[in-house]
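Researcher: Next entry in the queue.
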Amino acid sequence: MIVWKTGTVVDIAEQRTNVQTVIVRGEDGRSIRALHYTDTFRPLRIGDNVTMNDTAGELALGSGGDAFVCGLADADADGDEQRESGPEVAGERHGGHIMKLRYTPLQRAVLAAEEPASPWHAVFLERRTLEGMPVLIGELHSMLPIAAGWIAKAEQHRPPRVAYIMSDGAAVPLAYSRHAAHLRQLGWLCATITCGHAYGGELETVNKYTALLAARHIACADLAIAVMGPGIVGTGTPLGHTATEIAEWIHAVHALDGAPVVIPRVSFADPRPRHTGLSHHQLETLGRLAIVRSTIPLPDSLTEREAEHIRAQLDQSGCAKRHDIVWVPGIAAEEISRRLAPYPEPVTTMGRGLRDDPPFFAAVCAAAENALSRVRPGR
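Model: Structure for this entry, 379 residues:
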C-alpha cells in the first residue's frame, strides 16, 4: 500500500546537505511536513506543486512518520533552462555503474569503492583483513553519537580515526541522519560509508565485508562503528526485527580478522517488558543467531538489582556461554554528560535522554571504552 498526496509548498522549514524539510498544504487544506532529497530532484521553492508519499503519515507512525516528496507535479517545474539543456541529472556525475535501490523507480547509480571505475578498485583485488581493528556493532541509530562522543573526548594523545558504516537495515539515505552530519562537522568521524542499498556515504560499498575493508584501508580508520540508520523495524516477535543484522556484522568482522564489540541495548526506563534490561532483540540475536564469539561490555555503574537482572538474562538466553561478557568500570553519568556537551543538540533514545535512561547511555559508553582499549597504536 502506498498513499499518494499532492499539495503546494508553503514553507521551507529546514535546509541541510541533500535534504530539505518543507511544509506542504494538501488538497484538503491541511499542512503536511515532508522531506525532500535534493539529490533526487532540484531543491524546492515556495509555490512548487509536489507529489508525496504519505503512507507513514496515514499510519500515524511516531518514528519516521514524515511524508516524502517523490516528484514535482508541474510539467515545467524545472523551468526553461531544463528544457533547453535536456533531462536533469540529479546528483554528481561519475563513472559508477553500481545501482542501489535496484529495480525501483528511484534506482540510482553510485560509484562503488569496489568497482573498476573507482580509484580504490585495486584495494579489493588483494586479500586484506581488518588487522585486528575493533568494530562497535549496535542496533539503534541513537547509539552512534553517544559512542562517537565518548571516544572523541577520551583523554588520549591522538584521538582514533573513527569511521561510521550505515547498513540498509533502516533508513536508506545517509542524508536522513542528522547525527552523521553533526558528527562529521565536529570531526568525531573520519568518514561515512554506506553499504547494501544504503546510499549517500562518502564511500559507497556493495556489502558489509567491503564496507569494513573500506573503513580500514581507504578511510584509514582505527575503529569503526556499524549501526543502521534511523528507523529500526520491530514486530514484537523474537526474530522479526532488523536488529538481527548484529549477528551478520559479528560474523563479517570475525571473518575479516577484526574484533567485534557489541553495543548492548540496556534500559530500565522502557515501559515495554521485552526491552527491560537487555533488549529481547539482542538476547535472541546473540543467544541464537551469532555463531562466533563477540565481546559484550557492560557498565559496572548499574545498581546491583539491575546487574543481577542482566546476568540472569545472559545466562537464560545462552549469551553468557556464547560471548565474552566484560564489566567496564568508570562509566559515570557526569562523565558521559561532559563528553557529549559539545554535541549541538540533545541526544535521546526513544524520546529519553541521559537523565531519563542512564543505563542506556552507560552501556553504549562501556562498549565504546572497551573498543577504544583495543585500538592498536600506530598504523
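Model: The domain at 4-85 is CATH 2.40.50.220 (OB fold (Dihydrolipoamide Acetyltransferase, E2P)).
Researcher: Noted, moving on.
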